[in-house]
Amino acid sequence: MPGMIVWLNGTFGAGKTTTSGELVRLLPGARIYDTEEVGFMLRRLRCLPPVKDFQDWKPWRGLVVETAVHLLDQLGGTLVVPQTVLVEQYWTEIRTGLEKAGIRLHHFVLDSDEDTLTHRIDTDSVEAGARQWRLDHLPRYRAALPWLSRAATVVTTSGVSPAHVAGTIAGTIA
Asked: Which InterPro entries has this protein been placed in (predicted)?
């Protein structure tokens, strides 16, 4: 069996990173696969055209899939991916690549109300420097929510702990 991916989508402040940590404690053989690292690697290449978001580079999407395939081939188990993807075409490319590789994919969107998201972003001491950037992405997330709701299981994170959210997700995929 080639393994499984649990993809946690949603906007910044929805709880993807914290929930991922909780989820790996609940799922035997699970580990976090941070696809942003692929983007950071690509940013070092000066030959790619400048973009505002590394997801705009087609190589990012392909390498996310290929890296997942190789990690699961080597390690087995489950990869938990806390990554916002708001462009439907990009998600389709990633999903299709994983499906072609025979990887079981569970896609969840962590969703919170606007007040909760704003509060979490305002009080996040880890990424305090990205506050405005994160707030500026809330309208893009809301615009993407219709297709995300069709493509994933939406899990509400307002008023519940990350451990509860992780338990809900773990129970869904069991």
From this structure: P-loop_NTPase (IPR027417)
